[in-house]
Fold this protein.
Amino acid sequence: MAADGHYLLQLIKSKKTWRVLSTVVSLPDTARHEDLDQMGAARSVNQVRSLLVELGALPERDEYLHRLQKWTTDQIAAIPHSADQLALQQFVRWCQQRRPRKGPTTNTQAANDKRELRLIFSLLSHLNAAEQTASTATQGHLDAWAVNAPRDAFRVRGFIRWCAKTGTNRFLTPPDYPRLSFRIGGSLGPGNEGALQSALSDQNHDPRMALALLLNVVYGIRVHRIVALQLADLSITDGIASIQLGSVRLDLPAAAAAWVAVILAGKIDKRRFGGAAHDETWVFPGYRHGNHQLASSLAARLKKLGVEPAVAHQASSAAIITQVPPAVAARILGISITTAAHWHKLTGDAPTYR
């Protein structure tokens, strides 16, 4: 009953989640994660799972990682050649699963890993159709796949390098990164400018949404990085609010100090299904226990405020790239230093590094 009333009503109306909860209550023994895994679609089951974890009836489990590992195991088992299976199993174990993570796997991290694996599966399928494997393929086979592959075919670079490192195939050169498009100048647009003015002047504005709007419109930070912000990344020193973005710490405008103060004080705009009143980790806590809000959800909320996240990112990037060195711009915008230097060059200035 501590949940957001509107959200709780939607769960009851959907019936699926409510049915799962009723089933769990009627079990003769305490529910296990394995029991919940058999009760239906992840969307409805995980709402109940989150409630049980927060109540202490279930132990913590890294849900996104668990689902990713199960999906990966099933997909690898369907690969026809055992040599390819072994190469990919080793890559997943040593390159993906052992990658350092702060806390549980997030939706964004799991989606990125899954996208990388989908492209590797596509490459292996192409090689198998040409009666080749990862160990016998030539550069011509790889290039032929890359020509018709999606724009992010460069994501297979890690696997190609792993094959070279382990001796599976030392003769392949990974696909190049695509050059991101860049438009010099440009306007934020009336909608983005109006939303920014409203956030700065309206005292009743949701502090989290005001901060998200500021970071996207002024600093060009994409929504998937904004939702991944943790409370530890925010601070107020001598009345000045700042935010940690990787190795860069940004001092925010004076108006943001009040927003950050409210966020750090623990006031939240929604409560999860049976969730606690204060999330100790995330600036944008999600409805699922231990995870932040989905990037798509934040983007949708920004659009309701009149913000077009992609347009705001493009326009603010054009301004930032002319004001700070490429190395700093790269960390703020979440792009490579090479790309930042290229954009800086397009503005007519020689890139400098610090």
Q: What stands out?
A: The chain has 17 helices and three strands.
